[in-house]
Amino acid sequence: MNSISDFMVNNHRECDNLFAVAEESAGGGKWQKAQPEFDAYRSEMERHLRMEEEVMFPAFEAKTGMVGGPTLVMRNEHLQMRKLIDDMAQKIAAKDGDGYLGVSETLMILMQQHNMKEEQMLYGMMDQAFGAEAGPLLERAGASA
Q: How many structural domains are present in the chain?
């Protein structure tokens, strides 16, 4: 991967795929499959969010001086996503397929909007800000995630 955009968009797709697999099992009442699949999704999603919050966003803020801008919005949305993921965990534990699907639908809408903002705006801004320095930043992000 040469750019921040390429790397991060690919990671979004990996999270999306894990989300869909867990949703299918939970929606179908396949609880023995749903729990580990959800755990895999939750783990990868948390890794992605931490990568952004602990490495990518602080580096972008330091490089550009934009502290109250797009990264603040993304962090707030991360909090909302984590709350919904916690709610989904409770629905899995209760073996509540309909409840899980209701919360997962809300999360899916939030993730789609969030990812679109990152992919169409923020990651491009990062590519522009870092240019050739993107490689070392991505290495740091991968190493700390």
A: 1
Q: Does residue 22 form part of some domain?
A: yes
- For residues 88 and 98, give the distance between their C-alpha atoms in angstroms, rounded to a whole number: 11
CATH of the domain at 62: 1.20.120
Instruction: Please count the other Cβ atoms lying within 10 Å of the Cβ belonging to residue 120.
Output: 10
Cα torsion at 34, 93, 100, 71 (round to 10°)? Answer: -90
Tallying the residues shown for the chain, one arrives at 145
Other beta carbons within 10 angstroms of residue 28's beta carbon come to 11
pLDDT, tens only, 98-144: 999 999 999 999 999 999 999 999 999 999 999 988 988 998 888 54
DSSP string for 35-80: HHHHHHHHHHHHHHHHHIIIIIHHHHHHHH---SSHHHHHHHHHHH
Helix (H, G, I), strand (E, B) or coil at 125: helix
Structural contact between residues 38 and 92, judged by C-beta atoms closer than 8 angstroms: yes
